[in-house]
Amino acid sequence: MKALTFLGANTIKYQEVAKPIIKKPTDVVGKILWTTICGSDLHILKGDVPESIAKANEQKGRGLILGHEGVIKVESVGSAVTKFKQGDVAIVSCISSCGSCYYCKKDLQSHCSNTEGTSGWILGHEIDGTQADYVRIPYADNSLYKAPENVPAESLLMLSDILPTAYEVGVLSGKVKEGDTVAIVGLGPVGLSALLTCKTLKPAKIIAIDMDDARLEVALRLGADEAMNPGKVDAKAQVHALTKSDIRESGVDVAIECVGIPATFEMCQDLIGPGGAIANVGVHGKSVSLKLEELWIKNISISTGLVSAYSTSDLLQKVVSGDLDPSVLATHHFKMSEMEKAYEVFKNAASNKAIKMVIENDN
């Protein structure tokens, strides 16, 4: 089969590799129908993820198959798998989980202690992933979701990672509820997913904040009530002016950070009102300052996290019912054989106005 393989920092290759086989009774092997590229894949490509570097080095010239998102058609099933059979079409969860360990029982599947790696995120990170003709899915009964026939590929793909990540780590951890004022800082793919999933809970106002005017235009099109570019306006002052009233102090109820740099985390601290919640979704590579001298008296909460994908079934129901349409996030379509080209487009997402790729198997 053909696969997109990671050979080392800044080196990928679309090449012929061996087709995966069932290794454990809980495995499923499926043909990839559609896959996509995530920001995490770019982190790996840059050489920022040591586990993936180590796996690539174990197989010189062959490397590690990237990708943790996709939709498959089940081809072979392990003897212990009960929920799937040959021919089923299923959404691949970005998290592989046993369903029975201490962490899985606490809906912390991202920390599953029985996976083939260091966490629940193993596909395309510590074992071969989904950017290939075929993929092996460990713990299939807990790591796949049957795909309804009437849902398009563009929506199914978003349920692999981006929607549950934004919903769980941003919206649910931030405890967004009807009537809240919510600021989303960073309107890339995850921030836009936070916007879409947030809307299903009927907040009073969603404020989109980003340095890219094109992304702000998309946010407004998808339902944001306000859009601000902090490179052009004083976003802090504008947010506090918008949220000031006779019955409460200014500031948002929930601030969702979707970038992962010190400046955006600091902005969330500046925007939050008394009793509010800061939900950090962005992946940070540097230390950030915590303005505890200002925040302690505000009774706020701060949450962080890696997605566990416990919300995938709920999100799928929202898609089926029409309450959520993530297909709008799919901006570019490629064939699997064009995978290297797709990476070039996604690496330059801003200039290409790219949000998410839909990459279809050639066969």
Structure description:
The chain folds into 2 domains: 212 residues, Medium-chain alcohol dehydrogenases, catalytic domain (Quinone Oxidoreductase, Chain A, domain 1), CATH 3.90.180.10; 140 residues, Rossmann fold, CATH 3.40.50. It is globular. Helix 8 links the parallel strand 10 and strand 11. The mean pLDDT is 97. Helix content is 29%, strand content 23%. It comes from [Candida] arabinofermentans NRRL YB-2248. Keywords: Metal-binding, Zinc. Belongs to the zinc-containing alcohol dehydrogenase family.
Itemize the secondary structure elements and their pairings.
Elements: E1 2-8, E2 11-16, E3 28-35, H1 39-45, H2 50-58, E4 64-65, E5 70-77, E6 89-92, H3 102-105, E7 134-137, H4 140-143, E8 144-146, H5 153-158, H6 162-172, E9 181-185, H7 189-199, E10 205-209, H8 213-221, E11 226-228, H9 235-243, E12 252-257, H10 262-271, E13 272-280, H11 292-295, E14 301-303, H12 312-321, E15 330-335, H13 339-347, H14 349-352, E16 356-360
Parallel strand pairs: 9-10, 9-12, 10-11, 12-13, 13-14, 15-16
Antiparallel strand pairs: 1-2, 1-4, 3-5, 3-7, 3-16, 5-6, 6-8
Domain Alcohol dehydrogenase-like N-terminal: 25-148
Pfam families: ADH_N, ADH_zinc_N
Cofactor: Zn(2+)
CATH class of the largest domain: Alpha Beta
What is the quaternary state of this protein?
single chain
Taking all Cα atoms into account, the compactness measure Rg is 20 Å
Structural class: alpha/beta
The strand count comes to 16
Beginning-to-end CA distance, first to last residue: 11 Å
CATH topology of the largest domain: Quinone Oxidoreductase, Chain A, domain 1
* Beta-strand proportion: 15-25%
Number of helices: 14
Secondary-structure element sequence?
EEEHHEEEHEHEHHEHEHEHEHEHEHEHHE
The general outline is globular
Described by strand count, sense and barrel closure, the largest sheet is: 7 strands, mixed
